[in-house]
Design a protein that fits this description.
Blueprint lengths: L2 E11 L4 E10 L2 E6 L8 E4 L4 E4 L1 E6 L12 H10 L2 E6 L10 H11 L5 E6 L13 H6 L4 E3 L8 H14 L3 E3 L4 H4 L4 E2 L2 H6 L3 E2 L1 H18 L3 E3 L5 H12 L4 E5 L27 H13 L4 E2 L8 H4 L2 H4 L10 H10 L6 H16 L14 E5 L4 E2 L18 E2 L2 E7 L2 E5 L4
Parallel strand pairs: 1-4, 1-5, 6-7, 7-8, 8-9, 9-10, 10-13, 11-12, 13-14, 14-15
Antiparallel strand pairs: 1-2, 2-3, 5-16, 16-19, 17-18, 19-20
Helix pairs in contact: 4-7, 7-8, 8-9
The chain binds (4S)-2,6-dioxohexahydropyrimidine-4-carboxylic acid (DOR) and zinc ion.
Zinc ion binds next to loops.
Length: 427
């Protein structure tokens, strides 16, 4: 029998109301005991003195590019990046090449993911080829193990088709993840439509492109009675609409990414596509609204929208490069440094948003250190400041606007079903 004892760390497990100095015993990949001064016996001991011991993080929005663009990321490299960020479960979006629009592709990714250093869950596309014309065979894909449906990267612009998909999602008990973007309003824009777009001479994307689809999808979901989850919320009005919908009792949840409560378009120094993502960095007013919504729980979840692209593509500037930034290896550090370190949010509150809530929304066996749960554990050093160095990322993507940023909250060890899949050797 394989036993490990994680000794003396600050164990934070909000699902069980725990935040205190404790030991955790792992046996056969599961959590066997949590308590003070557990006897080591013959267990291998991991010293967690002075470190935070958290349930493994759950990132419900990543892009792993497998199949089709494995020069950008594979399921295995993406999983290694996840492990380095303390993430033990990921939900992968379906905009691969080809897209995840058929159960045979879903079977392919699950086969590959069996050897990955993270628990991998797949989102199914809503329409065939993600072309917005014809629904996928959603029941077959549900059989194959998809955990949600989405057309992430764009919206299903045909409201009637989306409404049908929502009715099927309701029957299949799958959440619908909405990327909110009205393409007719985007109209070729590449960054937020504000004075910084004027400064850089670039075409703008208005907030309304997000706002009209966020409101449309909440209205449609209310009618279809399905579970709706708004992806990467970035505007003040979307936040207000979400707050209103929740107050009405709608079954809606939402996520945002660290960059939307940290950066604004003012931070874009030049025509540098490392700052290009979709939705774009918005204004200060938007950032403050998003941040307030994360703090008061209106936005339930923090995700990365981890979107690796090659350096060559990203060197082409805002007009000619793809949207997206990587995030798996900076997400906790940014969130901790921005929200917990200044005293805006408790560490338990951050664990809720990065582990408990996404596990709950997706129905995953994660988000807690309860006895009997899989031993998915992330150990963080909260004391020592470090510098983000993309050259050290395990992701194949280096496209981040956070290079050189000083952060607290470095992942020093990640345990997946009792097995160490990441150990920081740079201490
Ligand atoms: O910035 C983004 N990149 N936003 C998306 O919605 C898609 C993603 C990607 O796949 O690169
Ligand atoms: Zn998206």
């Amino acid at each position: 029998m394989m036993e490990t004892l994680i000794r003396g760390g600050r164990v934070v497990d909000p699902a069980n109301g725990i935040d205190g100095r404790m030991d955790i015993r792992i046996r056969d990949g599961m959590i066997a005991a949590v308590g003070e001064d557990l006897p080591a016996g013959s267990a291998a001991v991991i010293d967690a003195e002075g470190l935070a011991v958290l349930p493994g993080l759950v990132d419900m929005h990543v892009h792993f590019r497998d199949p089709g663009q494995t020069h950008k990321e594979t399921i295995l490299t993406g999983a290694r990046a996840a492990a380095a960020g303390g993430v033990t479960s990921v939900l992968a979006m379906p905009n691969t090449t080809p897209p995840m629009d058929d159960v045979s592709f879903v079977r392919y990714v699950y086969e590959k993911a069996a050897a990955a250093d993270t628990h991998y869950y797949q989102v199914g596309a809503i329409t065939k080829g993600m072309l917005g014309k014809e629904l996928c065979d959603l029941p077959a894909m549900a059989e194959g193990g998809i955990r949600a449906i989405s057309e992430d990267g764009k919206s299903v612009m045909d409201a009637y088709l989306l409404r049908q998909a929502m009715e099927e999602a309701k029957e299949l008990d799958l959440p619908v993840l909405s990327h909110c973007e009205d393409l007719t309003l985007v109209h070729g824009g590449v960054m937020n439509d504000d004075e910084n777009a004027v400064r850089l001479g670039l075409p703008g994307i208005p907030n309304t492109a997000e706002d009209v689809i966020a409101s449309r999808d909440m209205i449609l979901a209310r009618d279809a009675r399905c579970r709706l989850h708004l992806c990467h919320v970035s505007t003040a009005l979307s936040v207000s609409l979400l707050r209103f919908a929740k107050a009405q009792g709608l079954a809606v949840t939402a996520e945002t990414c660290p960059h939307y409560f940290t950066l604004t378009s003012d931070d874009i120094p030049s025509d540098d596509a490392k700052f290009k993502m979709n939705p774009p960095l918005r204004t200060k007013a938007d950032r403050e609204a998003v941040r307030a919504a994360v703090l008061d729980g209106t936005i339930d979840v923090i995700v990365t929208d981890h979107a690796p692209h090659t350096a060559e593509e990203k060197a082409k500037g805002f007009r000619h490069s793809p949207f997206g930034i990587v995030g798996l290896e900076t997400s906790f550090g940014i969130s901790y440094t921005e929200l917990v370190k200044p005293g805006l949010l408790s560490l338990g509150g951050l664990v809720r948003r990065m582990s408990v809530m996404p596990a709950k929304i997706l129905g995953l066996p994660a988000g807690t250190l309860s006895v009997g749960a899989p031993a998915d554990i992330a150990v963080f050093d909260l004391e020592n400041e470090y510098t983000v160095d993309p050259e050290k990322f395990r992701s194949m993507g280096r496209n981040t606007p956070f290079a050189g940023r000083r952060l607290f909250g470095r992942c020093v060890r990640t345990i997946l079903s009792g097995r160490t899949v990441w150990e920081d050797t740079n201490l």
